[in-house]
Structure formats: C-alpha cells, structure tokens
Amino acid sequence: MPKIGKSGFGLLEIVIASVLLGVLGIGAMRMIEGLTKSAKLNGAGAEITSVKMQIHTLLSSSRTCPVAFQDLSGNRAKFDPSVLLPENPTAEQINSYLLANTLAQLKIGSLTLVKKGEKNGNFFVSSIQLTELDSSLRGDTLVNSIAARTLVASLDLSLVLGHSAEAAGLTRQIRLPILITTNNTTGSQQNEILACSINGGITELQVLSGKEDVTDCENPTTHNPINRADNTCPYATFKDILFSKPFTSPPSVSVSINSVCSGRLASCTGGATDSVYSSAEKITETGFRLRCSGSPVSGSTCAQDGYSCPGVCSWVAVGN
C-alpha cells in the first residue's frame, strides 16, 4: 500500500478514517437534533403550564370569567350544547353549530390569552370550544332577574407547537372543567354566557347533585326552630345538605328553583307569590346550607303576608 509521505497514512486508511468521521458526524447531528427536540418539548411543556395558569387565574374571578368568553368580534360568546356536530358534518351543519357556539377567544381588556386560528407564544391555537359533560345536571336559575340555566361543561383547547398541525407529536390538549350559566330567554342574547366558575387542580372533577324540599325554619339569632301550622316562616326556609362524598376543598354550588309555596298558601292570595329566593351558604368540603323559599303576594290581608313559604330547589356541587 503506497504511503503519503514517509510516515503518512495509506489511501485505504484515509478512506476508512473518512467513513468513521462521517458516521460520527451523523451520530453527533442526530444527538443534537434529539437534544433540540427535547428542548422544544420541555419549552412546550413550560408554555402549556403558563397558559393553563393564566386561564385559571382569569376564570377564577366571577367578575372576569363571563366576559372573558368572547366570539371573534369581542362579543359575549354563546354556548348551546343542544346543537352538536355529527361525525361527518355538512357545510350547513357546521354553520348552524358555529352560530350557536361562538366561543373563539379568551380575552380580558387588551389581553388575549388564546384565540382560535392564531399563535400564542410558540403555539398555534387550532381549536377552542365548550363541551357539556352531563346534560342531566342542567338547572334553571336567575341571573340579575334574567332567566338562565346552569351547565356542567369543560373548556377544551388544542395547541400545536409551530404554525400548523403537521408538527408531529407536539399537539397538546387542555381540558378545564367549568360551571357555565347561560341566558335562557329568547332573542338575540339567547345562550350568551352570563356567569361561570372554574375549579382548582382540574385533574379530577367530582359532581354531586340533589333536589330538596326546603322547609326548615329558625330564628337566626337564637337558632330556635319556628313551627307554624301553615309551614310558613318569617325568614327564608333552609335545609342543611351533607355531601354523600366530601370534596378536598369547598366546591362551587349552583342552586335553581323548581317550585315555591306549592299548596302552602292561604286561599286569599290566589296561590300567587311576588318574589322567590334561593342561595347556597356556609359551603364547606362536607356540605352547605340551602335556602329556598317564596313570598306570598304582599299587601294582602292574609295572615301569611310578610312570611316566606317553603320551596323545592335543585343543586349541583362541582369541585375536586
């Protein structure tokens, strides 16, 4: 084998060395690519955590939560779980769904946390929507004298690292259970989100519910029970609820009225009431006090004027 110089390498040795260097170079490149991908994944995880924390902070406030849900124009978003997308929807079905479910961004003031079809940091927001978790937990309620309904739902987001869904393996899903209250009247504001609340850890969601005949009455100062022959009470009637399974922290409790004063009013009122009242008080991990009552029409000559009569209320508790 000829040598290059007096003590140099032979041609075959040079070829072998070149091949070895090439193999080592490819290995080094793949290692660098792996480290780069790992860094991207770690960065993606950090951004996901940051987005979740920002969303949780925004939706934890009863003041900012409902106004944060917006359509593309910045109006209050609508949520109608009765309009669903089939597996292979037509253009008409897609249009109907988008008209009934308009959530496109989470925004407060000039701060946009996520917006469908746009980038958020290094992520592209491919979808953002609300999904009802259990239709049997729907309840009727009032929000500022507006007929409304409560829904147990989840806020679902799909985030993709980069500009498109082709970024294989880098699509991440966020699912946050949330209690939504929507406008239940007819007209242009039907299904608009009026109120909402979100829960802490968002890994396991416990939902408990019940329907109660609320008849207990007591003096709020002495706590002595008050018993009247007609079951009316000078205060709002109540019932103490004990959860069948305790929560790890006080849950969000929503109350809706089913009926009040049914069969419990003197005939001179004509069975009419002029106000109703419901609330959840003293909420703990193990239970709460449910108040639910109605008021006979005031100004009448009935002995029940100024008193409350028992009501029947449904409740839903959502938490961890």
Record field, number of beta strands: 15
Strand content: 35-45%
Assembly state: single chain
Residue-averaged pLDDT:
75
Count of separate structural domains: 2
What coarse outline follows from CA principal-axis ratios?
elongated
Largest sheet: 6 strands, antiparallel
Structure write-up:
- By secondary structure, the protein is of the alpha+beta class.
- The protein has 2 domains: 61-198, no CATH class; 206-319, Immunoglobulin-like.
- 20% of the residues lie in helices and 36% in strands.
- It has 3 helices and 15 strands.
- Strands 4, 5, 6, 7, 8 and 9 form a 6-stranded antiparallel beta sheet that branches. Strands 10, 11, 12, 13, 14 and 15 form a 6-stranded antiparallel beta sheet that branches.
- A hairpin with a 2-residue loop joins strand 4 (119-120) and strand 5 (123-132).
- The longest helix is centred in the N-terminal third of the chain and has 49 residues, at 11-59.
- Residues 164-169 and 200-204 have low confidence and may be disordered.
